[in-house]
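Input (structure):
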């Protein structure tokens, strides 16, 4: 199987996606079609032996659109000719001007009433010509799509408008025909503009990274003088120089100098972050007041910001429940209203002696009402705006489904280390036993922990280095999952582990138990060191709680979260000390990974909608079983970005209540838009059945509500402040099976 991507000219909404699926889907060899409306991109998975890319491009052309091969280095290609860029705007403007000019000319010669509604009044040829030109300008971009819909016997809004305009001309309603053509063209222009506005919001992300990098030498050490290179050509491992005030062009690690970096474009953090040798830097972040050199760790196409841009684009293909509902509704709604329009046309004249011309006109009004333009536009624009706004605030949402889910959350489960705490524990107390000294105890611990990547191990190693203790070589190192590790030091077996592991070994005395409980109740995690003969001692390690943890828990409750649980593999004393300070509802401590999964499943069975927030790697199984998995501090961590449904790019826990408010605001916007669209249609259906509606009034109302829902949706792109929102809705899905 092969895959090819195209830039699709004219791809702005779900109608075009449906047309492309209808044309390309049945073709031999086509296996899968994926669409990114935001970037007007289509990706096709196909069998090379059965079909070629040029055949796919020809199929796209049959839909009235065009396809160009996608260039990953360039991305979304901007229109090259003035007509492609501005043709729709020009014709729509011309159509509107011609309608106004024709109306004014007719009004001066025949009176305003005749100009608006008297079909029998003789319309001067000049006025007819103006109205006809207005119709041509209005339907120019609609006709090809309408013809394709007619050929496939699949009526869409384009075909409905052409039928309505043609019918109005047939019964002599030239003003109505021209007005409908202009207003529908205006509606399409608004739709294209709204998608372009959301496109620009994501394009702002793409503009974060500078196009050139100041390279000193490449990964092979070639080159001695700095020179500018395209970021796409810089190899991993190259040394790059960044001066004060410049943007970092690629992801990397600082190897010389120190500075501060404004990481707001990636993580949403408001304060600059100090950077020194060994620290990570991200493409698109802004260097502070120091000149630094860094070694690149990722290619331009694989940087954190590039992955964010890619995932925001892909997120549109994962449709939200609201989008799915609107699409299903429109599928049945349009044919139903068309049938009703036919009944209106033939019913009254056949059964109630109605005038054919009058009820034919009312049937055309219903056809106009059948256009679900505002309804179709409202939801995807809201979702795209919400995705772009979240990305700007350092929250990466994987799709429309996950935009709406936080609005329904009733319970939140949190990991402790790295979520509620900073994830940087340090040694607080050393307790040597069995005749050992503090240096001896640290030597044994350092020898074992030098083989481990656990946060507690790093804390022990950092403290050992500060004391000048150099770790000896330990052999046969083995991890005991969730409990500790063993090794051989100087020919003797040694072990390190938790209080729980000590109990399992049966080496604990009442005095040890009392001391361990005392250290744990003070909020420390205790590392026990021993051998087969005795316990060598304890090392108490404590992690500092995040400064905003308590406020975040309070904000979550204010947002309507009913139950907040801490799930941790740490000892109960430490967990409960943090729980008391943050006022978390429930603590489950000393959990193995599989026990975290069980705890989350229990929460889902009780509360339906449950979020699990963790580091995105160790907590992946639990996150997968929650309704919503959220990774904390995911910037630069590929596994975290891939694992979670939502990734908080910074270590800012306050983004969690922000996310819930953002989701509820998005859902509220979608519901208001849908309700407004349906309300306008309902009013005009009633007016039509009462013979009180006009064609131009119906399309004006539909265009007006289209503009309103688009503007309402684009409000989501603005910076948000916390709002008081009602408690979340009840009920929801469970991804680990039925509760």
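Output (sequence):
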């Amino acid at each position: 199987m092969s895959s090819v991507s195209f830039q699709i000219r004219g791809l702005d909404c779900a109608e075009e996606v449906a047309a492309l699926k209808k044309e390309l889907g049945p073709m031999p060899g086509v296996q899968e079609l994926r669409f990114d409306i935001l970037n007007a991109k289509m990706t096709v998975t196909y069998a090379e032996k059965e079909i070629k890319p040029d055949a796919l491009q020809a199929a796209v052309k049959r839909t009235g659109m065009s396809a160009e091969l996608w260039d990953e280095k360039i991305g979304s290609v901007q229109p090259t000719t003035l007509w492609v860029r501005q043709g729709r705007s020009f014709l729509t403007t011309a159509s509107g001007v011609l309608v106004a000019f024709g109306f004014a000319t007719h009004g001066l010669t025949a009176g305003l009433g005749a100009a608006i509604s008297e079909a029998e009044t003789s319309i001067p040829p000049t006025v007819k010509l103006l109205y006809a030109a207005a119709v041509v300008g209005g339907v120019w971009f609609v006709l090809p799509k309408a013809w394709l819909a007619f050929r496939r016997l699949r009526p869409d809004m384009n075909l409905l408008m052409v039928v309505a305009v043609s019918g109005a001309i047939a019964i002599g309603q030239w003003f109505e025909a021209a007005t409908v053509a202009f207003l529908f063209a205006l509606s399409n222009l608004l739709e294209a503009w709204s998608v372009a506005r959301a496109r620009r919001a994501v394009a702002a992300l793409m503009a974060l990274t500078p196009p050139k990098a100041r390279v000193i030498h490449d990964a092979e050490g070639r080159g001695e003088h700095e020179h500018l290179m395209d970021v796409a050509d810089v190899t991993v491992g190259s040394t790059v120089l960044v001066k004060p005030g410049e943007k970092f062009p690629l992801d990397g690690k600082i190897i010389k100098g120190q500075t501060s970096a404004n990481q707001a474009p990636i993580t949403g953090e408001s304060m600059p972050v100090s950077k020194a040798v060994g620290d990570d830097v991200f493409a698109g972040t802004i260097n502070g007041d120091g000149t630094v050199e860094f070694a690149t760790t990722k290619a331009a196409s694989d940087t954190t910001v590039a992955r964010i841009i890619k995932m925001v684009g892909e997120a549109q293909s994962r449709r939200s429940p609201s989008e799915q509902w609107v699409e299903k509704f429109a599928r049945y709604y349009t044919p139903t209203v068309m049938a009703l329009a036919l009944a209106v046309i033939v019913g009254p004249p056949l059964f109630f002696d109605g005038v054919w011309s009058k009820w034919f006109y009312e049937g055309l009004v219903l056809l106009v009402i059948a256009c679900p333009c505002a309804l179709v536009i409202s939801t995807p624009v809201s979702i795209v705006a919400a995705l772009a706004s979240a990305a700007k605030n350092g929250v990466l949402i994987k799709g429309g489904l996950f935009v709406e889910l936080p609005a329904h959350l009733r319970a939140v489960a949190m990991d402790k280390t790295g979520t509620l705490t900073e994830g940087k524990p340090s040694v607080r107390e050393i307790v040597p036993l069995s005749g050992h000294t503090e240096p001896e105890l640290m030597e044994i611990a350092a020898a074992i922990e030098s083989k481990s990547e656990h946060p507690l191990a790093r804390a022990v190693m950092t403290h050992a280095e500060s004391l000048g203790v150099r770790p000896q070589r330990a052999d046969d190192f083995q991890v005991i999952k969730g409990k500790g590790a063993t090794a051989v030091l100087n020919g003797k077996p040694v072990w390190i582990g938790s209080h729980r592991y000590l109990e399992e070994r049966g080496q604990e005395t009442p005095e040890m138990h009392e001391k361990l409980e005392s250290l744990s109740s003070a909020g420390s995690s205790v590392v026990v060191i021993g051998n087969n003969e005795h316990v060598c001692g304890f090392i108490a390690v404590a992690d500092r709680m995040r400064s905003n943890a308590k406020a975040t828990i309070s904000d979550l409750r204010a947002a309507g979260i009913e139950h907040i649980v801490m799930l941790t593999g740490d000892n109960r004393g430490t967990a409960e000390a943090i729980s008391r300070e943050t006022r978390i509802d429930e603590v489950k401590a000393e959990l193995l990974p599989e026990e975290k999964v069980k705890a989350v499943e229990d929460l889902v069975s009780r509360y339906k909608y449950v979020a699990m927030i963790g580091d995105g790697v160790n907590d992946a199984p639990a996150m997968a079983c929650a309704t919503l998995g959220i990774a904390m501090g995911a910037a630069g961590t590929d596994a975290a970005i891939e694992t979670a449904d939502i990734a908080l790019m910074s270590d800012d826990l306050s983004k969690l209540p922000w996310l819930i408010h953002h989701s509820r605001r998005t859902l509220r916007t979608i519901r208001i838009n849908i309700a407004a669209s349906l309300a306008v249609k309902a009013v005009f259906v009633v007016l039509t059945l009462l013979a009180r509606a006009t064609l131009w009034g119906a399309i004006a109302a539909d265009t007006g509500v289209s503009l309103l829902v688009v503007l309402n949706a684009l409000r989501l792109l603005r910076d948000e402040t916390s709002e008081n929102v009602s408690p979340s809705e009840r009920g929801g899905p469970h991804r680990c099976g039925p509760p």
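Notes: The two ends are 39 Å apart (CA to CA). The longest strand covers residues 2-9.
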